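Service request form, structural biology core

Requester: graduate student, group of Dr. S.
Request type: structure prediction, single chain
Budget code: on file
Notes: please return the result as structure tokens.

Sequence provided:
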Amino acid sequence: MKKGFFFAIIFLIAVPVFPVAAGQVDLLDFGMIQRGMSEAEVLVRLGPPDHESFEGFSPNNLLIKSFFYFSEPCRSQDITTVIMLKGGRVVHKERIYR
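Core staff response, request fulfilled:
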């Protein structure tokens, strides 16, 4: 009995901590992404990206990459959220509507 209770408590504590699955980023979460935010903070808030691209290195040898979050196929409007990182920090964010 104690073992089952222990696992139930761990499950209830751990579930909100795990990042959400990739997919469309809602406007509230998009608004919470700020310049200077770390890559880890972005991953915790938005989850792993649907696609990740590496653009190269800046003159200071900082890695430049972008995270792409696509809307689900069943959505009426196609929205792509792009988060650009340089040296592990957010430098640009945008939403592309198609």
